[in-house]
Input
Amino acid sequence: MKIVRKNQTEEHELELERDQGDQITARVDGSSVVLTIQRLSDGSFLVSDGERRYRGFVCRSESGVEVAIGPYLFSFTLEQAREVRSRSTQVARPEIVAPMPGRVAKVMVAEGDRVRKGQPVLVLEAMKMELVLSAEVPGTVTRLRVTVGTQIEAGAVLVEIKPDLSTQQAETEAS
Output
């Protein structure tokens, strides 16, 4: 997988290649390091380079991927044509699930609202950062399980969406 991290003044290229088991080789701007990744039951992971160990979280956004590792937050855009999905999200989900524990900072929809795929639905505040959670399917919000200020655990269902099957089917046939 090849992704590019862009900020205001720099652009860095990151390539990840799965080795064996829980090991990956990460190449950042041509320099390589072997990392061990351990998935945790709460949806987070531990990453180690042999000397240091950090806890991390990954969250897809409309424009790419947000990765929090230790005290650092990285925003990436996907550079390849195929859609990259984690093992837990192989199929688009008709609900929005908390990727990590935190607090709901903003709710951008109400029950009955129609949403499109990729539309921001709520903002989760965790580890002194904000993560925008977006709809993975087009449809109608059928249940909003949280309000601003709600403390949530990783894996908690926050919003339920009734998929618009005709739009979803058209997208599937187009790909």
